[in-house]
Write a structure and sequence with these properties.
CATH topology of the largest domain: Rossmann fold
Shape: globular
Mean pLDDT: 85
Distance between the termini: 40 Å
Structural class: alpha/beta
Bound molecules: guanosine-5'-diphosphate, magnesium ion
Radius of gyration: 22 Å
CATH superfamily of the largest domain: P-loop containing nucleotide triphosphate hydrolases
Strand content: 5-15%
Number of strands: 8
Length: 320
């Protein structure tokens, strides 16, 4: 039986790292024991800097993260990665870059990489990812990177999980940028134009700067950064690391990080409430005679389904 203490030193001890990996599997499998463990781990969280890396499939997110790991390790920071990118090739839990490159991190407990599938999570991928972040933070990782293709969509909003969001795009074929979807500009803190070994990199950056210039900025708001990288050979990745750390410092100086952490806690609380309430209602529907009575009334036509649902929920949950 897995215990919370077994996991706590996961970023320093190989055995504890394995325990952390088992814990994340419990979360993925919706194992009921995960909830109790998460409660015990939660007080040990809060120190990690959580970075979201998002962008369309193929822009080089995984390659970039692989290079980011190397840069963060140079600064002796411990790094965990959760990839929720369904397009990422999954091979035995290791998914980033090619397998050879991955092996250089394989014996390093200061690095932890997992992919998360969207199958079967109760509250959706967002909740499962947040649960996993709790585990990684309790394990003592300094940096937690979440890779995802989604930003700003209802079922997976990276801004509800990360302290800093990097949006990856690539130079277009003719001019300007490819693959920055309208509406996600608001979510980004760092804009990365990757594959700058290709033509039109400068035009792509320029276009992004223009698009971002329209944002209303005050002194207490972070001014988004646009950066060029070639993830394949690591060009520009040192600057990218510095930008993320600058963003963190900026947030610390302005009291923004505490506000953001409170906001993320509130969102986690809300998604937990939704899940737990739904679970209770499902149990109730399976066991309650009231529910069966109500069904009969609907079937006999003495009550309509809308009124029945309304009455039932009002009887079930009252807030004062
Ligand atoms: N030319 C070039 N190719 C890159 C660069 N970064 C990544 N790639 C390639 O782009 C492809 C997709 O990369 P991947 O990291 O899997 O993208 P993801 O889907 O966003 O995670 C792979 O074949 C990479 O080798 C780069 O800076 N330049
Ligand atoms: Mg990927």
């Amino acid at each position: 039986m897995l215990k919370a203490e077994d996991i706590l030193e996961g970023s320093r001890k190989a055995e504890a790292q394995k325990a952390g990996a088992r814990m994340i599997r419990l979360i993925e499998d919706n194992d009921p024991s995960a909830f109790e463990l998460l409660k015990q781990l939660y007080p040990h969280t809060g120190e990690a800097f959580i970075i979201g890396i998002t962008g369309s499939p193929g822009v080089g997110k995984s390659t970039l993260i692989d290079a980011l790991i190397t840069e963060f390790r140079k600064l002796a920071l411990k790094v965990a990665v959760i990839a929720v990118d369904p397009s990422s090739p999954v091979s035995g839990g290791a998914i980033l870059g090619d397998r050879l490159r991955m092996q250089r991190h394989a014996t390093d407990t200061g690095v932890f990489i997992r992919s998360m599938a969207s199958r079967g999570q109760k509250g959706g991928l967002s909740r499962a990812t947040k649960d996993a972040v709790v585990v990684l933070s309790a394990m003592g990782y300094d940096i937690i990177i979440i890779e995802t293709v989604g930003a700003g969509q209802a079922e997976f909003d990276i801004a509800s999980l990360a302290h800093s969001v990097g949006i990856v795009s690539i130079p277009g074929t003719g001019d300007g940028i490819q693959a920055v979807k309208a509406g996600i500009l608001e979510t980004g803190d760092i804009f990365i134009v990757n594959k700058c070994d290709k033509p039109d990199a400068d035009a792509a950056c320029h276009e992004l700067v223009m698009m971002l210039g329209m944002r209303n900025l005050s002194e207490t708001r972070w001014k988004p950064v646009v950066l060029k990288t070639i993830a394949q050979n690591g060009t520009g990745v040192d600057k990218l690391v510095q930008s993320f750390l600058s963003h963190l410092n900026f947030m610390k100086k302005n009291g923004l990080i505490d506000r953001k952490k409170k906001k993320l806690d509130r969102l986690y609380f809300q998604s937990l409430l939704k899940d737990l309430t739904l679970e209770k209602i499902l149990v109730f529907m399976n066991n309650s005679t009231d529910f069966k009575e109500m069904l009969k009334k609907i079937e006999s036509g003495s009550m309509d389904p809308l009124s029945a649902a309304e009455l039932m929920v009002n009887n079930l949950i009252t807030f004062e």
